[in-house]
Design goal:
Immunoglobulin-like; 5 domains; five-stranded antiparallel β-sheet; four-stranded antiparallel β-sheet; 514 residues
């Protein structure tokens, strides 16, 4: 009572085996400390490679810690034990510092190391306590098998796997949320390097990008038939889908999410129709199957037909405009006479039929046009006007009126951002992202580019290296040994990922090298 606070971590006095011991023949590991100790999450914090089994026991008894392996130690094998924060003192929970033990059951100790970093794609903060694992067999499956060699990342996203023997290794990383040391791609982000790493030489510059994509095989899980639609559900989201035969009798769209397809029926109720389904997920895994669409007496709750908020992008140099939104139902009719632009108090511009497109599968509406704006006018405030019943749905209900203000900024109200790219890559896309993670501006395959009339706000810049030039980011494929496409996050000289754009101010050129 009243004494000084204990700030000293427990000190290791002795161990069996000792660090660096060869020809170890014991059955358990024993460590003796200078004070009473306790264990904290030992199965999480104490990492033994190669693993002696998931059910290895850890016992704290007064000043000692005993480790009882589930499986006997393998002959002629080097074991590495990293204790991290797993052993602490009783009083103040001070963790033993830099505690590591290596021993061998044979006459030599392996001393090679693999180290590097892990980051999660599109995120600035490095992940902590991710599992980084190694395997050597070409038949190893990260989604079904448990690794023998593994470690965890620190707060900076760095890792190191020590005491490895010479050979060929494959490496991957994942967030082991369910603690089963297997990748569950449905819920856990993961990443991998498809090429084998040869040890030696040591490689201290390994970088593993993490992403979150469901790698399970694509499956049709259920179908529900009602008096108006059939709902086809899959075990995961689809990237695209095609149903055949594609006729006026069969119209289809994604449901509330892209893991389900709504099929609208326009044929006699006494009939049924066989449809073939071709689906592709974001990993380019495919499904080809078929089923019969039929009528039943069941009904689904009526959904109101709505047109969402419009996202408008206006090029203030050319006055070319792109406006996009989504509908809640398939659109079967567009009244372009009810869609027009108010350019000023007296001038109007009507949308033309060829300027509007509708993607039935995603229910996305796109309007592209060029505004006939009088550039001599000082204050330009165009408005996109959507009249009543401009869009009519498959259920014959119509849209409501919408007034969409089109922001037009002056030089004094906006900023300028210039960018220079240094790279040997042929295909890439540079995006300026808002703080709510929306792509505001972008360009492709240009070494120098200037964003004019930028709305003052905070932004960040990402670069997608589009190796196959398909205008999308591809996550690669573990089974096909294809790497994910590279993502670069621009960082300022102050090591920040965001930067401000101010009114009547020019920023740059920002140099991005990759």
């Amino acid at each position: 009572m009243g004494g000084p606070k204990d700030v000293d971590p427990p000190q290791l006095l002795s161990s069996d085996p000792t660090d660096g011991q060869k020809n170890f023949k014991g059955k358990v590991i024993t460590l003796n400390f200078d004070e009473y100790v306790k264990l904290k999450d030992p199965k999480e914090e104490i990492i033994i490679t190669p693993s002696p089994g998931a059910n290895t026991k850890y016992i704290a008894k007064k000043r000692s810690v005993i480790i009882i392996p589930e499986n006997p130690w393998t002959e002629n094998t080097t074991y590495s034990v990293a204790f991290r924060n797993g052993i602490q003192d009783i009083n103040e929970s001070n963790a033993a510092e830099d505690l590591h033990l290596a021993f061998s059951t044979g006459p030599t100790i392996d001393s090679l190391t693999i180290s590097g970093t892990v980051n999660e794609i599109f995120k600035e903060k490095p992940p902590e306590k991710l599992l980084v694992a190694l395997y050597q067999s070409d038949t190893f499956d990260i989604f079904r098998h448990r690794p023998i060699y593994f470690t965890k990342t620190n707060k900076e996203g760095r890792f190191s796997v020590k005491n490895l023997k010479e050979g060929k290794y494959y490496i991957y990383a994942f967030e082991d949320r369910n603690k089963n040391t297997k990748v569950d791609s449905k819920t856990e982000p993961y990443g991998f390097i498809p090429q084998a790493l040869n040890i030696p030489p040591n490689n201290d510059s390994i970088h593993i990008p993490l992403f979150h994509l469901d790698a399970r095989p694509l499956k049709l899980t259920s179908s529900k038939h009602t008096s108006t639609v059939s709902i086809i559900r899959f075990n995961k989201s689809l990237d695209s889908a095609k149903l055949s035969p594609s006729t006026d009798k069969l119209k289809y769209t994604f449901g509330d999410n892209t893991s389900e397809i709504y099929v609208y029926k326009n044929f006699p109720q006494s009939d049924s129709m066989k449809i073939n389904i071709h689906g592709v997920d974001s990993l380019q895994q495919k499904i080809d199957t078929s089923l019969y669409v039929k009528f039943t007496e069941g009904k689904i709750p009526a959904d109101k037909f709505r047109i969402g908020e419009w996202l408008v992008n206006l090029n203030q140099k050319t006055y070319e405009l792109t406006a996009t939104t989504n509908a809640t139902k398939i659109i079967t009719k567009v009244n372009t006479d009810s869609i027009y632009f108010q350019l000023d108090s007296t001038n109007y511009q009507t949308a033309k039929p060829g300027e509007l497109t509708f993607d039935t599968l995603s229910r996305k509406i796109t309007l592209k046009t060029k505004l006939a704006i009088n550039t001599q006018q000082k204050k330009i405030k165009p408005i996109l006007l959507i009249g009543k019943a401009a869009f009519v749905s498959i259920d014959n209900d119509s849209s409501k009126t919408q007034d969409v203000k089109i922001p037009v900024l002056t030089n004094e109200e906006s900023g300028i951002v210039s960018i220079e790219i240094s790279t040997k890559e042929k295909n890439y896309e540079v995006q300026m992202i808002s703080t709510d993670n929306k792509t505001v501006l972008s360009f492709r395959n240009q070494k120098k580019y200037t964003f004019n009339y930028v709305n003052p706000a905070e932004y960040k810049i990402i670069v997608i290296v589009d190796k196959n030039n398909n205008h999308r980011w591809d996550a690669g494929n573990f089974y096909k040994k294809i790497s994910p496409e590279k993502i670069i996050l621009y960082k300022t000289i102050d090591n920040k990922y965001t930067f401000p754009v101010r009114a009547n101010w020019e920023l740059g050129p920002l140099l991005i090298t990759f």
